[in-house]
Specification:
Length: about 130
């Protein structure tokens, strides 16, 4: 029997945080965000040695540039999945502010924890899972 494709049913959208900071090596997260397109592959990497938060999960582009982090509550949940070997995959859903001159850019990603590459949502690229403030 062949593999059944998930068709994105297990995918969800998450915003990143910390996109406006530069990296320790001097690379600009904002510049890297300008180069991204919807569907570009991202890597979610646990940083247990992070001085600010041992539960941190960093977000890296395919070029190896950190563009931000998961919010702490998401990092605890998703980081624990990564630690237990779950196949967590992410892609760029959209870059917020990309069409606004001088805007600080933000990242929205599409995530799948079932081993599949996430799919971009059709017609609703603006939908993001965020808690009410």
């Amino acid at each position: 029997m062949g593999r059944v494709e998930s068709m994105g049913w297990n995918d969800f959208s998450l915003p990143a945080c910390g996109e406006f900071y530069d990296n320790e090596d001097g690379s600009s997260r904002q510049e890297e965000l300008r180069s991204l397109e919807p569907g570009d592959v991202l890597a979610l990497v646990r940083e247990p040695e992070n001085a600010h938060d041992r539960m941190a999960v960093a977000i890296f582009t395919a070029r190896g540039i950190r563009v931000g982090y998961l919010r702490r509550d998401r990092a605890v949940w998703i980081g624990s999945k990564i630690d237990r070997g779950f196949p967590v995959n992410a892609i760029v859903q959209r870059v917020k502010g990309i069409d606004l001159a001088g805007a600080t850019l933000g990242l929205v990603m599409r995530v799948n924890m079932e081993g599949d590459l996430p799919e971009l949502p059709e017609g609703r690229a603006d939908v993001v899972w965020e808690d009410a403030a």
